[in-house]
Design brief:
- The longest helix has 8 residues.
- 27% of the residues are buried.
- Strand 6 and strand 7 form a beta hairpin.
- Helices cover 14% and strands 34% of the residues.
- The model has no long low-confidence stretch (mean pLDDT 88).
- The protein is of the alpha+beta class and 146 residues long.
- The chain contains three helices and seven strands; from the N terminus they run αββαβββαββ.
Length: 146
């Protein structure tokens, strides 16, 4: 994935954010979000200091991002990245158009499948993410750039 983002998308600062199982709650229409618990992240260095401060400074703050899907195409609708502290955990979530993104890609992003989320800076210098399905079991992936 990293090579595709760098060579084809002209992306920079490519990092693996998380590898996780897609749970039922990640694919429910009513929830409309992909949950990325902080304690499962491969790196916490995928946001700038300003982006982190913006997300954490108030409830409802978000950053508009673009998603590269498993078919290696940028999804047409923007996604919102939010900080979502819960009683038992702290999380980043993709929200707003997540269910539509998942529904469009559900042949690839099946419930209970293992997915990786990668962050990168797009050619326009905006924050982007890639969501891809991986065959192997969920394991800790070492990000050599962080």
């Amino acid at each position: 994935m990293k090579e595709f983002i760098v060579n084809e998308m002209k992306g920079t600062d490519v990092r693996i954010v998380i590898q996780k199982k897609l749970f039922d709650s990640d694919t429910r229409h009513g929830l409309n979000r992909l949950n990325m618990p902080v304690n499962q992240l491969q790196t916490i260095e995928f946001l700038t200091v300003d982006e982190k401060e913006h997300l954490k400074k108030g409830k409802g703050n978000q950053i508009e991002v673009r998603l590269l899907g498993p078919t290696l195409e940028i999804y047409k609708d923007p996604m919102n990245l939010r900080w979502w502290p819960m009683e038992s955990s702290e999380n980043y979530v993709f929200a707003t158009n997540w269910y539509r993104f998942w529904s469009t890609n559900k042949l690839h992003l099946k419930r209970d499948s293992n997915v990786q989320v990668w962050s990168f800076c797009g050619s326009d210098q905006k924050l982007c993410f890639a969501v891809v399905c991986v065959e192997e079991p969920v394991v800790k992936v070492v990000d050599s750039d962080s």
